[in-house]
Automatic annotation (TrEMBL):
The keyword Signal applies. It comes from the Bacteria. Keywords: Signal. Gene3D superfamilies: 3.30.200.270. This is Uncharacterized protein. Residues 1-18 form the signal peptide.
Length: 159
């Protein structure tokens, strides 16, 4: 039953992020994980200091990296960006309605590892939302690497 729930959560999560909001490039969704892959994800999440239950919800997205999250934290997040085994960002996606209502988010973009320092923050308003989260919302990324560096991640295939 636990395996079924984890698989169902992963499938939901991958569908929720089937589209990269920044560049309009499709976000490749991973296949349902095997037990071995689930164990590898748990080990990676622990090594990166991510919360227990954090799993990979997308393959590498151009300009960002892989997306990792706990399915129960979606769609708000936090969502973590990983590239080559390193943490490169933390993201939240608050709805526009929550901003208008005056909702606050305290300590949600915290750094999972004490030695990581935020390099810059990108805030993008998506008035139509995107696949998997089709409501007006903000994508807020706190990057641990320079803008030039992450823009080179996972370049999209040439047309």
């Amino acid at each position: 039953m636990k395996k079924f729930l984890l698989t169902a959560a992963l499938l939901f999560a991958t569908q929720a992020f089937a589209q990269d909001s920044m560049e309009g490039h499709p976000m490749p969704a991973p296949a349902a994980p095997t037990e071995e892959q689930m164990a590898e994800m748990a080990e990676t999440a622990m090594r990166l200091g991510l919360p227990e239950g954090t799993i990979k919800i997308s393959e590498c997205v151009p300009g960002m990296g892989e997306h990792w999250a706990r399915p129960q934290d979606l769609p708000l997040g936090p969502i973590y960006g990983v590239l080559d085994g390193s943490l490169v960002f933390v993201e939240i996606m608050p709805s526009h309605a929550d901003f208008i209502a005056g909702k606050s988010w305290v300590d949600v973009l915290k750094t999972p590892k004490w030695f990581l320092k935020i390099n810059h923050v990108d805030i993008e308003f998506l008035p139509q939302g995107h696949d998997g989260y089709p409501v007006p919302h903000y994508d807020i990324h706190a990057y641990y690497v320079s803008h030039d560096e992450h823009m080179g991640f996972c370049p999209p295939p040439a047309p």
